[in-house]
Amino acid sequence: MHVTVFITLRSFYPKLVFLFLSCLISSVAEETNSTSLSELELAKRDAKDFKNLATLIKPSVVVIESVDRNGYEGGRGTGFVVREDGVIATNFHVIGEHRDFSVRLTDGRTFRPHSILAIDRDRDLALIKIEAKELPVLQLGNSQDLIPGQAVLSIGNPLGYEHSVSRGVIAAIRELEFGDGRPMVQVAIPIEPGSSGSPALDLNGNVIAILSIKSGGAMGFGVPVNELKRLLGELAPIPIKNWLTIGALDELEWKAMMNGSWKQRAGIISAVGLGNGFGGRMLCLNQTKFPKLPYEIEVEVKLENESGAAGLVFHSDGKDRHYGFYPTNGSLRLTRFEGPNVFSWTILQTIPSEAYRLNEWNRLRVRLEENGRMICSVNDEVVIDLVDRGLESGQIGLCKFREPTARFRFFRVSKRFPKSKVTPAFTNQVRKLVRPLLHRDSLEPSEIDELVNMGNPTPQALRDHAMDLEKKAKEIKRLAGEVRERLVIQELAKSLRIEERGSVDLLRSALLIARLDNENFDLDSYLEKADLLASKIEKSFTKSSTQEEKLLILVKQLFGEMGFHGSTLDYHHRSNSYMNEVIDDREGLPITLSILLIELANRLDLPVSGLGLPGHFMAIYKEDPPGEKSGKRKSRELLIDSFGGKIVSREEASRITGVTLDEEDFEPVSNRDIITRMLRNLIQSAEREEDSVARLRYVDAIIAIDPNDRYTRAMRAMIHYGEGRFTDALIDIDFLIEKNPDAPELDPLKVLRGRLIEQGASAP
What we know:
Blueprint: H1 12-32, H2 39-57, E1 61-67, E2 73-83, E3 87-90, H3 92-95, E4 101-104, E5 110-111, E6 115-120, E7 125-129, E8 139-140, E9 151-156, E10 164-175, E11 183-187, E12 199-201, E13 206-214, E14 220-224, H4 225-232, E15 238-239, H5 240-243, E16 254-257, E17 261-265, E18 268-272, E19 282-286, E20 295-303, E21 309-316, E22 321-328, E23 331-338, E24 345-352, E25 362-368, E26 373-378, E27 381-387, E28 395-401, E29 406-414, H6 424-433, H7 445-453, H8 458-497, H9 506-517, H10 523-538, H11 547-561, E30 565-566, H12 579-585, E31 587-588, H13 590-603, E32 608-613, E33 616-623, E34 636-641, E35 646-648, H14 650-657, H15 671-688, H16 692-705, H17 710-722, H18 726-739, H19 747-758
Parallel strand pairs: 8-13, 30-31
Antiparallel strand pairs: 1-2, 1-4, 2-3, 3-7, 4-5, 6-7, 6-15, 9-10, 9-12, 10-11, 11-14, 12-13, 13-14, 16-19, 17-18, 18-29, 19-28, 20-25, 20-29, 21-22, 21-28, 22-23, 23-24, 25-26, 26-27, 32-33, 33-34, 34-35
């Protein structure tokens, strides 16, 4: 429905009327006495009029500051007031997809948005609401009345220079080659980063376009204002709490209590600031089912500093009653809370422990038994074992006290956890294997006396020796990383080798890719999250729902209600290729979002597969016709563009990819192809960031999956050569030559092989 919106400019509009009546009178006088004003005087008057107009418009223009994927300062853009009760118009890309941002007025007041009133991704428009009143409003014009050559004025924040004024003309009204078929306003006005969302106004002070695209030089494009007027009539408010998905807690898994600030990203939950409970207490209770007593809960915690306190909470009533086990000031403490204040707080035991590692990650575990027994341990060492029947049932989760930030990872619950595999015997075996890198770590008293007798140079010599040991410690840490990476690659390759037997878990394989770069998350917990998402979606099905109807519900809930979306601002950010971060942030690439869709569909018994299109990735639903006698009846097919969160036709798929697609393009791809494509995306990201170490890691993974991948093996040979690992380069070159000795594309590698031999390289 199209609604025409009339907006008044309160104090601004009377001034404009006076201003332009004055201009009209002057114009009439000029016609009766054309020689009374010189061209210079006319130019001065014109400049003065623009200055006055800019002064009047300025209070209605705002600065919009957003944050990036990691919560740091992101970009800066422009917006303008379209309703006096705090409605702001801007470009969609300025606020970002599901990002946090703020709005700053010309008087210095800064507001967090109250809600997102409406968005149009295709036209790059957004309407947001802040809690402000009696704001100066800009009047909206009519973009159908625009004439090429007419003068325009714009105010924005290009390159961070706030409220910069630009003047120019409308160059044309034209359709862009990469657009959606609707016209854009071409303006001869310089547009720079920060200009996005700026109003372009005619000489009557009416907004005629919203600046959006830089075209080069003093040229750009704006969205016609009539598109904004249409959007004002199609409001669909989203509370900001529901909009901000990046870093938000998964409500299916966690519930924050006592007003604490909890964030969840990349497998790590962070607790920031103070809660409103006693001692700054704040809780985060797990919402998933836990077993009947006895059972065990576990988490790893790291404090910003040891003055803080954070750990496990259990037997909680969801309010003030609960137990807590946590480190505090370097000791381990078990407490019972039975109310909101100090008088209902009982310290059951506080124990120092050498097993607790200051300023590092520490694994806390509590075993709960039916008789009120609580066995509390840190890093596999029992520190507290007592019986208390004050509270015998309730929820489990996390807690934090005092100001310092705390981080949590690997929260788990089980009937009984297995014993750690890192036994003293295992540790000794590892140390034996790396002993060549180590020196003795203690001296006899007589040897220390000998050092003293050596005189003043000795301390410096010892410090030099310490630096050597630090280098060796660094090498051991690097070796630990290399071993971990190889173990992950082995597991990934193994999972894909069994694809033919139909037992491969695509999501697990995708999560293993994320583990190549980040071991600080519990892989199995993300598989459980997928189960939870599928279970929630399944509740929307009815007994009469067809397969196709179920798919439509899945797409609507995943990309609509749950907020999973394509990353338009940080497309090349590596986080978009890490499935754990895609699930946490609800933002990703076409391929990662499609993997999630496929896995949820499979859990719901829907026939959805991956579709590897040129330059894009989609999912495809194919439902075979019922019965064996269907003859030539075609399967029912639906294409899902996960990046756009919608069902598309084959024609739309061709438009999205920019190429004419053939029938073979719509054939589903294997899980092996999907995982390999993810790794190639990461290779490109690493090349873009000039991260040669990461690039080699992804290349190794592809070759482990497919040892006969000639292209990737040749790439690895060149990487090894460039890094000076000549023997490794020679091994890969010899492999390629042996497999296909007469291939002409190998001639450059054969020349390189000769150089490697000359430099002394030899294959084992």
